[in-house]
Amino acid sequence: xxxxxxxxxxxxxxxxxxxxxxxxxxxxxxxxxxxxxxxxxxxxxxxxxxxxxxxxxxxxxxxxxxxxxxxxxxxxxxxxxxxxxxxxxxxxxxxxxxxxxxxxxxxxxxxxxxxxxxxxxxxxxxxxxxxxxxxxxxxxxxxxxxxxxxxxxxxxxxxxxxxxxxxxxxxxxxxxxxxxxxxxxxxxxxxxxxxxxxxxxxxxxxxxxxxxxxxxxxxxxxxxxxxxxxxxxxxxxxxxxxxxxxxxxxxxxxxxxxxxxxxxxxxxxxxxxxxxxxxxxxxxxxxxxxxxxxxxxx
Length: 298
Description:
alpha/beta
């Protein structure tokens, strides 16, 4: 069975400004999402599911209509702030979305096979897709999931500080925990992060999480119950978010699941800041010139 690619595209990108998900960055106006889908098709994925907001569904679908539907099955699921989840009659009213794992949960009706999860506005490179496709086809089980990690130095922005989850592996190269580091940036030849009023050095060769996960479909039921508990505990906290790493950490801590780390040496690109845009445009131009991608893509 071919795996599915779940693309989290409901966020609006407040720091970037505008709808990053459909910003044309490739030589022929391609979006980052299109390069991810191209890589997924080449790696053997059979379906792509977009998690979007209903409010921009028409504009989103119009952007991609007719480009790749003949190459991969396409489905949609909608995440709005208070999209219901089975087991919760009334989600507390709030303005902030419930987080990335809530976004995954809204796709439970359209995903029945092992699947990968990525951000819509991040470029991961082909290597990660090939590695995770092989894992999902051959190694994914009800208690063995995965995460594709990236080398920290390959993920930094020249235009501002970033937050990264630095991965700690056990003796078997399974994910043991993720240390969240904030305000990471180059300082000369060193990479520095800040914690409170103090700064610390971090190894630029560290493996970090860029929200590229692989799951067995049983994760829907496992995380649904966690979400119910999370909402009960945080019903009066309008900023609490149910993130994927929170679920992973819970499953690792209870030894209910292992997350072997797949490490990609590809350069990761994202548009966290509007100043990152020309860097990504130039990167896609170079990848096309080097023969990594056709132009136009489709």
